[in-house]
Amino acid sequence: MLFCHIDRPPCNLLNHITLASYDFYPNRGGFLSPELKQAMEIRLSKLLGDEENYIWYTNWLIVSKDKNCSIGGIMLKGLPNENGEVVIGYYTLPEFQGNGYMTETINNLKNWLLNQPDVIFVIADTDKDNIPSHRVLEKSGAEMYKETEELYFWRFV
Known about the structure:
Helix content is 29%, strand content 29%.
């Protein structure tokens, strides 16, 4: 079971800035990947430009209650657009993949999002070769609705 508390704003601006500037991943004995750090910096820059709507640029750290450690993360990539779409991004640390953690987390977040004003669809995109992520989205009830040369786009309704 995961610690996933999303019935209220999950972090304040100071926590978000701290997370975005935090290079070291304590329970892995290593540093954040350049891609993850860049994603967090993008979220932070958007957040600083729209502090009133900070929840839509939030990163959540996913923590296993049983293991008492971080196992991944999930984020919102901005406000719902004019079509009521809000985009999520997520990752699971390799040693925790295949245990249902991300399926549970995505289900919790999408259920919360679909109960927010102005949200009609929750969207996720995946690299075409990321089969584990495809399975997570399928198990969570998403349907693939669009593709580009590199990505599949999935939608929850």
